[in-house]
Amino acid sequence: MIASPPRLRSPGRRAPRLPRPHRDDVLIAAAGLCGGLVLWGIGLDTKAVGLLPGAWVLVPLVVTAGLELLRRTAPRVALIAGTVALVADQFTAGSIATVLMFTDIIYAAVVYGTPAAARRIPRTTVFVTVAMTVGFTAWLQTVESLLIGVATALVAFAPASTGALVRNHREAAETARLRAEQTALLAEIDRTQAVTAERSRMARELHDMVANHLSAIAIHSTAALSLDDARTSRDALAVIRENSVAGLAEMRRLIGLLREGDGEREPAAAPALDALDALLEQARTNGAPSGLRFTLTDRRDAGRQDGAGAEAAGVGGTGSGGALPAPVELAAYRIVQESLTNALKHAAPGTVAVELGRTGRTLDVRVTSPFGDRPGPRAPGSGAGLVGMRERVALLDGVFEAGPVTTGDGADKVWVVRAELPVAPARRAGEGNTTR
User: pTM for this one?
Assistant: First the structure.
């Protein structure tokens, strides 16, 4: 018969290592063993005689001391083997060191064991204490037999209940620590989201305020450079200066917003729909060289009065239509401003129409501009305008749409920006519109 070759262990696999005992467990085991040896050396035992006299008392002592090394790493094994060692100690002269180390093993089994063991061990010790008290009282029928029950409670129930209290306090402290960490994490998330939201808000404000003026400056500076005409250049420079001054004023207002709460100055008022007339007048000046005309139709009064108001068209006509929330007014103004800026950059010659309407619960904003084939924009853009408008509407839980729309005859197309801004909270959950 050919002997099979020995099985080689894979170099990548290692034999599992037993967990190393804790340093405190080593000290407890050494102290218990040394104390038991001293007591045995001076002849101090728990009983005068035993079935196994002499050095037999050292066997449970050594076993219990060795089990102390497992009180954290294998508390269940230590408890079972320690119980056997304690029972064996009763057949010898007995050592108080063995008993004390066994009480520590019970305590450790509750503190470091599984949650099920932590619940089961105290109940078991209560049952053992009661059974020992009743059994020995019925057997010996003496009052002194009650001392056996007291001794059993001190050895078993007392350390088990102490371990349960310590474990409960540790779990409560760990729960509080985790809750504190979770609170700190949520606070950090809230802070990050607040910073991100504020940065997005300031980015929208900066884009909407500056893009309009810089686009006009770019368009008219291009015209001044391309046309060799003194009057055209002079008119273009006048428009450039006007937009530069207006842009500087807007930048100062933005700085005022950034300094809110520092006590240096009152923040500048946010633009509202009452300023649309001036905004369109500026757009007419900036768009005239490109063949653009601008009109404003305000139906807010008609919407609130069920048709009793009159339509206002042209330059004037921004009726109040009742007070609107400040965020709604600012969002509507910025949407119109950004739409006019995009029209200056991309629209074909024609009419740019701004329409405002109000129902009982929403403010409708609609900007229509000619959409034709152009070789390129009149001024460079970042592409953030539509994103900013969409974000503004989403923050108010409204509806936003932007894109080309074919007119009735199908021959021409117009670019339509439409926003529905809620002016009052929804009455029922789920009534809010969604942003498309």
Answer: 0.50
